[in-house]
Each structure stands twice: as structure tokens, then as C-alpha cells.
Amino acid sequence: MTVRKARLTMGLAAGLALIGTALPATAADWYSGGIKDYGGAGGVPVPAPAPIPVSETEWYIGVVAGGVLVDDSTVENIGSAMPIRENLNKTLFGGISAGTYLTPNIRAEFAFDFYDDFKVAGSDPVTYTESLSGEGQYIQNYVVTRHDSIKVGRTTAMYNMYYDIPTGTRIRPFVGAGIGVTWRAMKRNWREEADCASTTDTGEDPVVTSSPCHHLVADDPGSVVDQPQPSHWERSGTVEVDRFDLALAAMAGLSYEITPDIIWDNSYQFLWESQGISLSTETFSGTSTVSYSDTTQHQFRTGLRFNIN
């Protein structure tokens, strides 16, 4: 038993010694170069991290609709008693735009707005009296009825810049300003009727009669026969004028990001236009002029902006 125990003890000691010398070499062979060197001198290359795609929108297009809340323009009528429209509000318009993002918060665009034609004067008939002098001593008195309809159309082309205030949410306030041109057109349709009501004899003994307004003859048989005037006059016509002027605008509003590529804009715009537009026509009683000028408008606008990647 003693010899067998001695041999077992020596065998275990030798085995432990062999394991002790083998383990460091094996570990060194396995880990000395790391995974990178495993399998040969070339090793297995570690793949570079894939770049994360970044999408930056550069361009957009937009559509807008709105209405004029207040129009403080001046409408004047000179030369006739035609009624002018005092309340010029509630004019509707639509528009398109195309722009670019200069920075994540600053954008610039070209915008075109097309306004519905709105009436500035008429169309209730106006009745007044007018007297015409013929040759000799007679004056013919007419009752005149005039129908007028005057409309103004407008198209604006603006270069606008906006600053979108960052909030970290889908809702972003913005402010902006613009400069451009406004094209305004005025169109006047008119119709006038005049009926002779009486004739006045302006001689030494003036007499007003209801005789027809024609074939009036002077008292002196040797004098020239007075020019006959018709008992009824009727005429009509259409006149138009247009012009370009400077326009300035200031805007403020809120945008809501429906999706990353669709933004809903709601805003207030103040529009100012230089100069004015006027139109003159001849009437039975002389020249009539209507002008539309000193334009300042307060507008509400709503529309969609579509980003183009």
C-alpha cells in the first residue's frame, strides 16, 4: 500500500506540473494577437461602421388660399354721383409658391397670388337731371339714368423670406417679409339713358314747356333754325386700364408638421401697394373718374408646403 500510494502521489504531481507548463503556452497562442490575428498572419478585418444616411430637404413648393379681412384702400368718385363701395373686405384669392431652405430655420421663396375681381363702385342706377343748350334761346332739360359697374383685379408676384423659430416640436412660429410687384386692372361697364322732360325758353319771357325736344325754331323767321335734339338718348361702353406698382408685405404665423415632407402654414399678412389706379369715361354731364389707391390690406392665409428631397 505504501509503494502504491507513493507512485500515485508522484504521478499526480507530474501531471499537475505538465498541465501547469502547458496552460500558459496555450493561452498565449490563443490570445496573444486577439481575434484580429486568428487564422493566420492576415487576420480577420473588422468592418467599418456603416454611415447613417442624413436627409436634408433643400426645396419646396406650396399652395395657399385666403381672404382679405380688411381693405383700407381709398375709392374716390369725381364727376358723377355714382355710389362707391365703402366695404371692400372679403375678397378671396389663391396662390402658388416655390422656395428653398437656406438654413434649417431660414427659407426664401417666390410667391404668386391671384385675386378675385372685386367691385369698387356701382351697380345701383343713378338718376340726375341735366340741361343742354341749343342754338337760340331754348334749353332742353333731360332726366338721365346711368348704370355703372367698376371692378378691380389684382395679381402679385413677391420674393419672400421667412425665419422659422425652432421649438423642438411639430409646431413652429414664423415671421417673414417680402418685396415685389402688383399688377392691377380696372374695368368699367356703363350704360346711360337720357329722356327729355321739358324745354325752357330763355327769351324775354321765359317759358317752360313739356313740348318734345326737337324742331325748336327761333322767334325771328330769318334766324338759323335751332339744331334739333333727340327726345331719347341711349349709349353704353366698356373701358379698361391696368398698371404695375411696387408691393411690400409682412407676415407672421404658425406652421404644423403633418409629416416630415408636408407642412401646414397659417398666417396673417399685411400688404401695401404704392400708387393707385383710376379710370375715366365720358357721361351725359361730362367726365366721370373713379380711382382706387392708398392700398393697405390685412389678410388671412392658409396653405400646404410640400418638401422636395
Topology:
Layout: H1 2-31, E1 59-71, E2 74-78, E3 92-101, E4 106-115, E5 118-122, E6 126-133, E7 138-164, E8 171-201, E9 207-209, E10 232-259, E11 262-283, E12 286-308
Antiparallel strand pairs: 1-3, 1-12, 2-12, 3-4, 4-7, 5-7, 6-7, 7-8, 8-9, 8-10, 10-11, 11-12
Give an account of the 3D structure.
The chain is mainly beta. The chain has a single domain (59-308), classed as Porin. 10% of the residues lie in helices and 60% in strands. It has an 8-stranded antiparallel beta barrel. A hairpin with a 2-residue loop joins strand 11 (262-283) and strand 12 (286-308). The N and C termini lie far apart (91 Å). Residues 1-12, 14-19, 21-39 and 215-227 have low confidence and may be disordered.
Would you kindly provide a brief summary of this structure?
With about 300 residues, the chain is mostly beta strands. Helix content is about 10%, strand content about 60%.
Helix content: under 10%
Query: What is the level 1 CATH name?
Result: Mainly Beta
Low-confidence stretches: 1-12, 14-19, 21-39, 215-227
Specify the structural class.
mainly beta
Return the domain count: 1
Q: How many beta-strand segments? A: 12
